[in-house]
Amino acid sequence: MSFHCRVCLRRQVPFLAESICHVSRYLSLCLTSVACCLYQETELFEIIEKLQGSRIDEQRCEFPLPLKSQLLTIGGELPLILLSKSGGYWIDPPLEKFVDVSPTSSSFDPESYDIMERDGEAKIYHEFFHSRYHHSFTAVDPSLGPLVLSVCLEEEENKLRVILRMKECSLHGVFSVSLFPNIPSAVELAKMLCNRVTVSKFEVVSYLKAPELITAFDEHRVSPNFKFGVLYQKDGQFTEEDILSNDEESEEFKEFLSVLGETIQLQGFTRFRGGLDVSHGQTGSEAVFTSFHGREIMFHVATKLPFTEGDPQQLQRKRHIGNDIVALVYQEGQTPFLSDIIKSHFLHCFLVVRGIQRGEETGEAVYQVSVTAREDVPPFGPVLPDPPIFTDRSLLREFLLTKLINAEISCYKAEQFSRLELRTRSSLLDSLQAELTTRSQCMMGDPSVSALPSSEGVRGASEGSGGFIENFKRAIRVRSHSFETLGVPRKIGGTSSQKPKTEKDGESDKSPGPLLTDSLGATELKDQASPQEET
């Protein structure tokens, strides 16, 4: 080899070595990347599995060990309901009063089953003002916020009737005209009802359709429609997953459903539908419906809602029942129901019914009843008979339907609903005051204000009462309040099977009951967007 060749080879060796080193590093990086990808993919699936597992775990409620203790086998029977370990619920009748439940005659009168009113003074304006000549006024108080005042002179009785609407509440008063040398001003009348009023002037409402808007605001909590969940608990079922996965109905359960109401076909159903799909069959083909003392009630029966194979949580069922405020539980067997076994932001009360035996003489089913509710829900009637046993189907129906309605109305007084209801009212009052002021200015020809189309919020209100949840959604649209202010975490997105709610649907689906999706999703929540569903 020549000297020149040896020199060239010496010069190229470092270059070749460096190239080989780069190739080696590249291959090493590739192998590392492949390994990382495989690891990350494995890790990703592990994360997904863990998330799914924890989500299901969140839905589970551990059944307390004391169930197996002798303390609960009072009189050889197990109670219908047990309190959870964390507490937070009351039970009626209390466990210490649990006795042997042989059917005996109970001294109780169904005529004493009074249905509570959601808002006893909501219709005062419609009853005493709407058909009489009266005036309304608006103002914005520095401390109280928007005020809407209505004044009516009842000449036949020589009285002044006054309503002052504030964010917290509405105040109603009747004053004898003889008490005043002259008719008091709007400011003076407002201060008679509330001494915290500090405004010096009210503006007159001259909008011709103001009575309709004011009536809609006053009665926004009033509705003749209710919806309740119905759960079927078989013997030995201790978890939410077990209860929601029941897909068959026993003859005993069917008999109990016939006490509540009539089984109807949802397709083309034209009365109150309680958020169920009456066009496309997405919420099953059947439901239980009834009319009761001028009210329409739709039952969300778990076994009639769609069953999803492979879904232990049965979200299609939970999205409806989890949005209800009150639910019925029908028990077959001796397995107690745990107060908080169904995880939901909205379910605040359960009425539990157990079929215990057949009457020896009549052969009719005999039912035992118990009630549990969150501790901030006030007690409500009618009072359970002692013992809480029903042998007559008609009396059981009268009791249960009255108790369900009163339970929901009482649940609205719980802290969570009270807080939400205050925000709803405040938002609607803001909208009402602004609407009345702006339209009155238009009516007076104020050149600074152009003619306005009917706002979505007020138009929706004037179409009729939609109940608490519908009005909450309307308030959200009008005032753009965020869900985060409700104190409940918001779920992003919604289910893919949802479709826009039509105006016709809204007119046929008005209900008083809340609340929040329980998972705060955009589910039917009373129909598709509100805070009442924990999925």
How does the SSE layout of this entry go?
Blueprint: H1 3-59, E1 81-82, E2 89-92, H2 124-129, E3 134-141, E4 145-154, E5 159-165, E6 170-176, H3 186-193, E7 203-204, H4 210-218, E8 225-233, H5 240-244, H6 251-260, E9 262-265, E10 286-292, E11 295-301, H7 315-321, E12 326-331, E13 337-338, E14 349-358, E15 365-374, E16 389-390, H8 393-411, H9 415-443, H10 456-462, H11 467-479, H12 503-507, E17 517-518, E18 532-533
Parallel strand pairs: 1-13, 8-11, 8-12, 12-14, 17-18
Antiparallel strand pairs: 2-15, 3-4, 3-7, 4-5, 5-6, 9-10, 10-11, 14-15, 15-16
Helix pairs in contact: 4-9, 4-10, 9-11, 10-11
Q: Mind explaining what this structure looks like?
A:
This protein is α/β, with parallel strands linked by helices. It is 33% helix and 19% strand. The chain is built from twelve helices and 18 strands. It has helices at 3-59, 124-129, 186-193, 210-218, 240-244, 251-260, 315-321, 393-411, 415-443, 456-462, 467-479, 503-507, and strands at 81-82, 89-92, 134-141, 145-154, 159-165, 170-176, 203-204, 225-233, 262-265, 286-292, 295-301, 326-331, 337-338, 349-358, 365-374, 389-390, 517-518, 532-533. It is elongated and about 75 Å long. It starts with a helix and ends with a strand.
